[in-house]
Each structure stands twice: as C-alpha cells, then as structure tokens.
C-alpha cells in the first residue's frame, strides 16, 4: 500500500496546497462563538463564548460529553448547523477570511476544497443508493476536478486506495451496504481528503467502530494528514483518544470551553473541576479496578455484617458454563439453501460467587449470544449452563420460573430497556407483582428501597422513562433487575451508551451494590478499558471462540494471545498511562 | 474513586514546546456550569406519560381545536338530528320541488320537494354510523391478525400474511361494489361489514410491522427474563407500545370509510333509499346538476366537512404521537 | 436478482388463487339463486333456467365450478355472457380506454404530486407547505364523484374549457377532465408522501455529508434528497395503477365513458354475475401485477434489497 500522498490533484492551483500556508499564522480562529437553537420553549444557547485556535498542520481536539456543544461548534465552521441552529455572535476566521455571515456560495466553495469533513456514523453518512465511486466522483467534481473521464476514474481509485481500501477499482463500483463499517469510514476519510483540504474536521470519526478497527483507521488518518500537512480538528468524547491524537485540547461542557491548552498539560495537571473529574473518570486512562470506599476503609466496616473486601474464593461457583455452542441457520438467497453460522463455539467459563466476570469481544464475537444463553433466553445447540450446581436445561417450567428470580439482566440501551408506557413505579414493581412478592403496600416499600439503593429520589417513581436521562434510566433498569434479589446480574454492555462521567457513576454504583449485596456480575462489553475498572476475571472472545481467559491483572499485565495484545494496544490513550498511584 | 495521576511515558523524551498564540493554557472560572446538577431528577413538574405529552402537544395546535369541534358537532348531529331541525326529512311535497331557500327552509328543496337542510342534518347519522362501525371492526380484526402474525412469527406469520395478501389484492371499493350489488338486505351494518372485510389489510400490515419492531426492544427481553409468558408480554408491553400508529391510521380510515359508504350509496348499492344519506342525496341531485347544482353541494358539503374533520384529527394525532418529535 | 424475481412470482400464485376464489365464492355461494332473478318480474321458464345453469356449470359442485372458471381465466376464454356476447371480447373492448384514462391520471398525479410535494417538503412549516397540506386533505376528504360534478359544472359548463362528458371513442382532450378527477385523491397522497419523504431525507446524515463535500444546494437536492425520496413515492405510484383502474368505475360513470367501469356497472345492474366476476378477476390481476411491478421497481431503485 502506498504511503505517499500526492499533494496536488493535477490541476489544483499551487496556492491552494496546504504546504504553502504560513505555519505561524492561525488557520482557524474561533472567537467568542455563540450558537443558539430555536425550540418550542424558546432560545436554547448551545454554544456560549467558545474560543479555539488551529494552526496549519496541527491536530487539535475538542473533548466533551453529549450536549456539550462540541459537534455544534464544528458544524458551524462550515455552516452546516442542524435544524434551527444559528450563529448569533462571535467570529470564525479561516485562513484570514471571516466565515460568519459569509455568502452561501463562498461557504459552498470552501467545503470539501479547503475544509473537509469526516462524519461520525459510517452507516448513515453514505447515500445508500449511489455507488461509492459515484460519491467520490461527486466530491472531486464539485471541488474543481477537470480531467477526462479516464483520469477521473483513476483519481477515484487513487482516493480510495489512499484511504487504505485494497482493490480500489472494484470497490468503487460497489454500494455502501456491501462495505463493512470500517471500510465505509475509510471511504469517508478518502472523500474528506480527496480535494486536499487544509483543515479536516473529524467528528467522532471512529466511535461507531470496533476498537481494533478504530486504531487502524486513526493511525492511517494520522499518517495521511501528516504527509499532506492537513490540520485536523478532532471532535471526541474520549479524553484518552484526544490526548493521544492531538497536541492541543479544548474541553467543552454545557456549551462552554472550560479548559484548553497543551494535551499533556491538561492530562497531567487539569485545573477546572470538570476537567479534573473527566480525567479521573476516563476509563481508558484508569488502570485499576474500582475499589469502593468500603474496601479502602474510609467507611467503617461494622455497618455490614459480613466481611467486606474479602471476596469469597472463586471455587464457589455461581454460574458454570461448559462447552456452550450456538449454531444459527442463515437462510440463503436461493430457496431451501441455508448456511450454518456458529455464533458461540465451545465456550466454557465460570463465574465465581460475588465476583465479576467480563466477557470481552468485538462485534460478532458471540458475547451477547452467550449471555442470552446464560439468561435462558436462548436454547444452546449443545453444552450446558449450570446455575448454582444445577443444569438449567433440566428444570421443569415451575422451577424455571423460580430460577428467573435468581438471575437478572441489565441491557445496553437506556432508551429501550424501560417500557415507555410504564411509570417508573410500575417498571420496578412489575417483577415483584409477576412473582407474587408481598402485598401492594410492601411492594411499594420495596420500590422506595430500591430507588434509594440506586441513589435516585423516591419521587422519581411517579415519572416516566422519557423524563429521565440516560444514566437515570440505567439506574432504574438496575433497580428493576435487583427487585427480586437475584444472585447473578448479567450486565450486557450496560454502561456502553453512557457519557463518561455518568458511566463512572454507574460503575461505582455497581461496585457498591456488589459489595453490599454479594452479587455476582457477568459483564458483557466491547470496552477493555471498562473491564479493568470493574472485573475480577476476563474471558476474551473472538469469532465465537474463547481466545484467552485469566484474571484481570494477568490479562492486562501479561496478555498471552496476540489478539488480546491487539485489543489492549487499541485502547485509546493506553500508552499515555504511566505510573498510577493506586488506592 | 481514586484519582488517577499520569506521568506520560513514551513521548516524555520530547519536551513540550511553548504554546503558540491563542493556545495558551486556559481555565474557565470554576463556579459556572453547575457541575452538581449533571443528573438531577426534576421533582417539581407533574409527571408526563406519553399520552399526556401528546395531549399537551395537541392542544397547542389550532388544527386540533378546529377538527375537534367539527367532530363533536357532527357526532351530535348524527346522534340527535332532531335537536337541529324540526322538519321531517321524509315529509316531501313534490309541489315544492326545487324551490329556493326561504324562511324555515334555509337550503331550499330538492327534486322531490324535501327540505334539504333537514335531509343534510339527518344524513349525518348514516355516514357516522357506517364509518364508526367499519372502523371498529377493522381495528379489532386488523390489530388481532397483525399482532399475532408479527408477534408469534413462524408459520402464524406465513399463513396470516398470505391471507392478508389475498384480501389486499382486492381493492376496497371494487370488492364492496361486487358484494353490495348482489346483497339483498342492505343495512348500515352490512355496508360497514362489507367495507371492513375488504378494508382490514392495511391496519393488519401496520400492526404487524410495529409489533415486529416493538418486540425487539430490550424491555421485552427484560420481561422475558422475568419469566413473563408470551401472551402476557404481548398484552402488557407490545400492544400498548404499538397503539400509536394504529390510532393514527384509524382516524384516517374512518374518513375513508365514510367516503366509501357515500360512493356505494351514490351508485345506488349502498344504503337503501329509505335511509337518508349524503351519498344517496348526491346521487338524487345528479339529474338536476346543470340547472340546480347547489342542491348537490349541501350533502356534498356535509360529507366533505365530516371527512375533513376526521382526517385533520388524524394529522394532528400523528404529529403528536410521532416518536421523532418527542423530547429527548 | 433472478432468484428474487422467481420467488416473488411464486408468491403471486397463491395470492391470485386466493383472491379469485374469494370473489367467486362471495358471488356464487351467497344465499339466493343468481339465475332465478333473471328475466325481470316474471322470471325465466324453468327449462331455460336449467339450460343456463348447465351452460355456466352452476349445476356442478362449487369447487368444480371454480376450477372450470379458473381454466377459463388461464386460457383467456371466459365464455359468453347472458346476452350471448363473448366475455373476452367485452373485456377487450372495455380495457383500452380505461388504460388510457388510468395512465393519464398517473402522469397527472405524479407530475403535480411530486412537484408540489418537493416544494412543500423543502420548506416544511412554511406557508406553501401549510396550504399544500390543507388542499391535499380537501382532495382526500371530498369524494371523487363530488369533485367530478364540481369540475363538470365549473370547468365544463361555466368556463367551457373542456368537454363536459367524454362519450364514445373519446379523444385525449375529452379524457383530460376525467383523468384529473380520477387523479385527485392519489395526487393528494403523492403530495403528502413526497413531502414527508423529502423532509425526512433533508435531515439525513448523508445529505449533510454531501453538503460538507462541497456540493451545491441544487446538486444535493436533486441527487440526494429527491433521488432517495422517490423510492416510496414510485412504489406508491406503481401500486396505484391497479387502484386507478378499479377506481375508474365512478369516474367513467360520471363522464359517460364506456370503459371497464361502465361495463362493470352495466353488468352489476343487469345482474350478470359471470361478467362481473370475469371483469373483477381481470382487475385483480392488474392490481396484483402492479404490486409485483412495484416490488421489482423497489429493487431497482434501492440497491440494498437487490439480492435479498
């Protein structure tokens, strides 16, 4: 694969080549930017007084949670604010020109040619009805490519090859749905850089991809922009990723820049309370399991009857899975034809009582399928799931119903895991009612107790899910799962959809509950960084098979398989972590 | 939670260059932003369920009040036509045929010498009765079939979907015309029934699609993990969450059935002549269309306003129940 | 692709059999005798009734009757009607004008529906949009026959722009008004569908990305917004061919056109069950064919389902 990227596309004027720009003059300068949206309830100020400077060839990152205004700021640069969004004040200077209030034709001319963009979600950002090549052609033509048809075709293939797509000519004739997520993102990067812009806005360019793919693509993007001398403005929620890829960081919170400066300085010595919390919570930067306050001895242990901090031995098995296999039949295009797909292939693991076992893998690794079999939602093709020494498949219906009380799930999507028609009270009470637990009065008491347990006010029980935030809903989902006092909780990507700070809060909560209630967790995740914070043991899965299985410390300190090493290496900011003063 | 502290490794060999102009370390004053309020639950407002939310949205729309008023008036007229006119719609005097508007008879008289105002009022009942009956039947039939096909899947789905395809292959008005043309005892119930027989497929398809997507929600999986039975999950979780598109379609279907009934009556194969109906009156007015077109406009107007009322309500309800327009 | 086509064709067969059986059963299995009602007040002599019964296989068990009818459909030989005319010929005479009328209506609803829908969708919430919505609702709410009468009075009689009725062997101009009337309801649906679809696509991620690539607004509108919005609209239009043909029964009645609708109406009035079933069967065939066409169109328009 070529690593040389031609700076000129053959007929672009030399002036437009990024190399010529004065490296000491800011390429992009945002001053006191104000953006607001008009909604039914009035003006909402999405960005308030943001400042930002990018020099030619420099990598700058805006870091923030959802709703921080980071994407809005980026979109305003090329006048692509969604909906009713409007820049209401401040200035955006690009290469000496004011962009706020610039005529449409001028902005259109800048887009693609001077400022490229790589969007967030590769699945929805390519038009499904046009071939990849057509969409590249479009970008080239719109930005002044004037060669012959044959030259155009060659250039299109070059663009895709540069972005790291092998067999580019054939790929150009395919449709987006024939590409994997990583390939689409490569195509989008190729399109974003096709006309050699001076600035590339990369809005969460890899957050929808698996970690190993994410790393490859970011590396490639880094190589390309370095060789072309393109400045990159990263937009990301991941502090580790930002620190790793950019030399200058801008931290945003609720529409304001709370802190900005050299990446290493911010990481090593954050000043603003928000940045401090962010640095403290970023899972990719953490290196030790969360130790609850109880364990570190800050709270007196006599509050609890049983011995805290001393985990029961692993031989005490809550769930034991042996040779678990699930084969799905995939119907082929021709009638009657079908292929077998082994989603889970001879998987064995043991979840010790009172411990947390993480099942880690990328999409398609079979981790969720395995979890569903443990939950009894899916019949295994072969193999056994033993719960507390009993083979679950031998239970009669009545026993199976009773078994449900002892193992409960919490799912990923905080928006889909609560019935929107049910009030919070009904949602949490439902398991109790179904299993005929207590009277109406005692059930209400239990619901209040559970809300306390997940640190939500009791008044929340009259609310409906749409009135709560993602983190709050996830707390409710945990409360519902705990209603029946289960012994095992299956956490299927339970914190993956949450913002960093909320994620940290939920992880703390889970750890506290484990200590207080002696729960065992089966923690399904794609995110190794989180694993280090919560798990005692790790099972790494790939393509349905177990790749590596050991204690968390062993996996992180001394990974034995190449795939595990790849996964660890792919954690953004992994190599930034040096000595950590543990608790 | 322990505080993480970092000493960068790997890159530590290169000293950090001095920041360039505009990129110096900046920290905002700490008091702003309200960090503590990151995840607070609103405790002051009244809780809003989805339905209450929809209601709040709807009542802000003028269209809601316009269509609501129309529907209320039409239903009142249909239920108690005697409140709005004291004249018998069947008491006709040929001698007064085609007389224009006059005191006590604001719309004048039709070709048979009947009072047009009175007939327009009394005609509402036939339309509303057929529309409501047919819609109820369609909702019950279509929802049941669609929900079973979508929720239970497998061969239930295969068979029910094929049956739906078969009925879908016969256009509503065409099927109704064929059946009504050979019917001997034509009543409002029969007209509604025939319209329902050929009109339930759309709602079945909508229900099936919605149920298919709702049943993949994690709250359904959560209910399964509680050990809840399939039927119970369908009734408690899946159906209530599938209701919105069904309700929206039902209001539109109500309008369509009223039009279809009028079409049948217009063709003379809908309600029998002794039932006062707008379709029948339009048909009767047809003969005088070149000389006295206005006698046609009164029943047609009644019909249009009624259907428009239901259709507009459908629009408002759809906007209010649209999940994309919902907050958060 | 070929497998997809094959599978869809196979699925059509049970639907066709089911629909024809349903219609046939509804007409011939009803209480009462279709023959006894013939011949007006006095009725036909018993012998003649017997003869007719034999001729139309009405003396056979129901399922045999249906199978014989089906053989007729497949061989395009529907037999003769009660007046002795070849039904196949009746159908052949009736269809051309109805097809012309339906196609004209299709063009009208497509051009105006998509045009107005695009403008309304691009400026969702604006004055044009609000007006278009109310007008389209009006077209849906007012029955076809009322629209027909009003057009006749206003455009035909008062203004005298177009012929009031079409009559026998109508030309393009005299079919214009009937086609507009026939298109009215579907026009409203096409407009609303286009509007929703355009508004939805306008906020799609790939449209934003296309703009970020430097495409001009007109290019984005044409190549991305309109192209993608047309997928549901074209499928609606395809399915509407069948609906327009059966909907022509009202329009043809009003404008006195001797097409399928007129013939069907005639047969219904005369109680010629066999002609009614035959004509309806052909209409159902057209309807099923149109829906099949829609599926293929869909596959052609949306590459994602091409090999599904």
UniProtKB/TrEMBL annotation, chain C:
Residues 95-294 form the ABC transmembrane type-1 domain. The keyword ATP-binding does not apply. It is found in: Cell membrane. It is a multi-pass membrane protein. Keywords: Cell membrane, Membrane, Transmembrane, Transmembrane helix, Transport. The chain crosses the membrane at residues 12-29, 99-120, 132-160, 172-191, 233-255, 275-301. The keyword Transport applies. Belongs to the binding-protein-dependent transport system permease family. PANTHER family: DIPEPTIDE TRANSPORT SYSTEM PERMEASE PROTEIN DPPB-RELATED (PTHR43163), DIPEPTIDE-TRANSPORT INTEGRAL MEMBRANE PROTEIN ABC TRANSPORTER DPPB-RELATED (PTHR43163:SF7). This is ABC transporter permease. It comes from Isoptericola haloaureus. The lineage of its organism: Bacteria, Bacillati, Actinomycetota, Actinomycetes, Micrococcales.
